Amino acid sequence: MALQIDKEAFFRRMKRLYSFWKSNETLSRCDAIVVGVGVDEDVVYSKSTALQTWLFGYELTDTVMVFCENKILFLASKKKVDFLKEVNTGKENDHGIPSIKLLMRDKTDKDEANFQTIIQELQDSSSGKRVGEFSKDTYSNEFIKLWRSVYSKAGFDRVDVTAPMAYLMAPKEEPEVNIVKRASQVTCDIFQKYLKQQIMDVIDADKKVKHSRLSDGCEDAIQNKKYVSGIDPSLVDMCYPAIIQSGKNHSLKFSTVSDKNTLSFSSIVCMVGARYKSYCSNIVRTLLVDPSQAMQSNYELLVKAEEIMIDKLRDGTRLSDVYNSAVEVVKSEKENLVEKLTKNAGFAMGIEFREATILISAKNNLEAKKGMVFNINIGFSDLPNNDSKDAEGKALALFVGDTVLVNEVNYIQVSIMIFCIGNDRGLIGLLNTTQLRV
To answer: Would the N or C end of the chain have less CB density within 10 A of its end CB?
Structure first.
């Protein structure tokens, strides 16, 4: 089946880009924007490929996209140019965007003529001096190296537009929200049907199983119809290798890797995220084994803080206010735990797993907008647990997280679940598995 562009979505989003360009403080200083995408198997997430997916529904490797004041250019291979002809109708102005020009790759001169055409268009766009780019996106293949060499020699003032472009793409349209819902269901299935059950079995049988083995199992489970059904397995994958930690050795960061230590029957932190059609979702859960009353109380406070943030996360609310709402509830009930809180309490997510410029933190005054999807996640680190007889359980972490859709008066939440495994190795507490609040 031939790939097709959703033309209505393309023109709608391109128009949104150009409108935002005029109104945003950083973008309005740019005379043009250039995005080059190469080939690099090590690059999982990048703003460049996210923009392509947002516009076209697909990633286009070895492609240069150029947005000028009065023209849009795409430099790509013949196959990709044929794909892009769907939006090169000659009636782009009817959709409120500049005309589109397609340039076909020419290996005979290593695209020298094409590059010079692009440089000339950049120079002719507005004042022709300042060009927006994604400064942190790097590709090392020959095509991009050749392009960068020509681009650098042209001497443009380069402006990093990563943050405003992330904010532009963060509000999701209804079809995107539906995809995120499907991704969230996959995430819940992996956790509930596979990972949670695996951990329960390990505890019941008093086995020794490494964190890394449990993580690897999630990679296999996402392709297994026993755990994930009713969805094309070729369209799903993990956002990152599942992270399982337990006991005193923990780091509440998504860059952490599950180590080869065996599972400690104390506090068990699980971070699981699945992608569907390139859109991400994520949950964080903590399982407590024989918890003390104090530790259960700490967990209940953490869940309360998360629920307050979820309720606070509405259209027009500053993200710093969302974070501070959690700090205030912790401070009012157990002030000594404020210093144990994670320094940020979540991030916007979508085609990229974590938008580093849209964090829920004390210093981020960006406003949440209707349609944005966040992973709210908050935790306590290094909690003393003096009641533990096991050295591994003397300092514990508690961490919870959910995928939330920002709305004006309601939100969609992928459930909060608390697991406390008692002396009988049975399930003591389980809060709602799926929840829709209005």
So the answer is: N
Contact 242, 254 (CB under 8 A): no
Listed residue (156, 168, 257) closest to 214, CA to CA: 257
Q: Is the dihedral of CA 114, 116, 118, 120 positive or negative?
A: negative
Whole-number Å distance between alpha carbons of 364 and 369: 14
Query: What CA–CA distance (Å, rounded) separates 343 from 360?
Result: 9
The contacts found for 59-63 with CB under 8 angstroms, 24 or more apart, are: 61/37, 62/37, 62/38, 62/105, 62/141, 62/143, 62/144, 63/36, 63/37
CA distances (Å), 76 to each of 42, 65, 88, 388, in order? 22, 9, 14, 61
Pairwise CA distance, residues 44 & 239, whole Å: 9
- Name the phi and psi angles at 279, rounded to 5: -100, 135
Give the pairing of strands 71-76 and 63-67. Answer: antiparallel
Tell me, rounded to whole angstroms, the distance of Cα 387 from its chain centroid.
38
- Higher-confidence residue: 182 or 407? 182
Q: How far apart are CA 167 and CA 401, in angstroms?
A: 22
| Residues in Cβ contact with 418 at an 8 Å cutoff, skipping those fewer than 6 apart | 286, 288, 299, 300, 303, 429, 430, 431
Alpha carbon distance 65, 158 (integer Å):
16
Determine the Cα angle at 404 with ends 365 and 299, to 5°.
Answer: 90
Mean pLDDT of 181-197: 93
Residue 55 to residues 16, 30, 51, 160, 364, Cα–Cα distance (Å): 11, 20, 6, 20, 28
Query: For 74-114, what is each residue's pLDDT tens digit?
Result: 999 999 999 999 999 888 788 899 999 999 999 999 999 99
Give the pLDDT confidence of 231-243 residue by residue, as tens digits.
999 999 999 999 9
Is-contact 266 289, C-beta < 8 A? yes
Q: What is the pTM of this model?
A: 0.91
- Eight-class DSSP state of 3: -
Question: In which region does residue 238 sit, left (phi positive, over 0), alpha (psi from -120 to 50) or beta (all else)?
Answer: beta
Residue pointed to by tokens 């790939």: 3
- Looking at residue 262, the DSSP 8-state letter turns out to be B
